[in-house]
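Why do we bother with holo predictions? Because pocket geometry can differ from the apo form. Keep that in mind while you read this record for heme C.
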Amino acid sequence: MSADAADGPQQWAMSSTLPARPRPVVPWRGAGVLALLLATVGCDGGRPLAAQTAGSEQQIERGRVLLAQYQCGSCHAIPGVADARGRQAGTLEAFSARSYIAGRLPNELPVLAAWIADPRALVPTTSMPAMGASPGDALAMAAYLDALE
Ligand code: HEC
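The structure, written out:
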């Protein structure tokens, strides 16, 4: 049996039971949140996050589960996510094909993760609320959206 097969599910179980990281107090600034995210998430499978352009399969699947758990679908329609049929905000269908997040941020994985973690840190006037996602959870959800073609 490979180490991967043994570690995968266990690692998931652990990360879903981890308490949310306390949020350090930083003055709102998009760059600060992004830097914080890069520092706390670090890397995935040895690749530095900043160099990551797509989520791993495991991350994408975890993202699907988290999108349902965080109830993003109460406002957004999200293909493949249970009960995600909300109409208060735009559909996230084919999100990977979008150039911009919220019409103004480049649609790149680390930026998308930062947006999901704290949208108002990036766009103070946005009506999307912060959903209390940890940087790791936000990255997994971003990976799922980033894989929607
Ligand atoms: C209370 C309703 C609400 C919830 C819940 C919500 N959002 Fe949003 N979301 C919005 C609104 C409103 C916008 C548009 C913001 C803007 O353009 O400034 C938005 C925008 C977005 C965008 C950018 C969409 C685009 O067209 O560029 C993404 C991605 C996104 N949300 C992901 C999520 C995720 C992931 C969650 C769950 C963690 C979530 N949202 C939960 C209301 C919500």
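The chain has one domain: 27-146.
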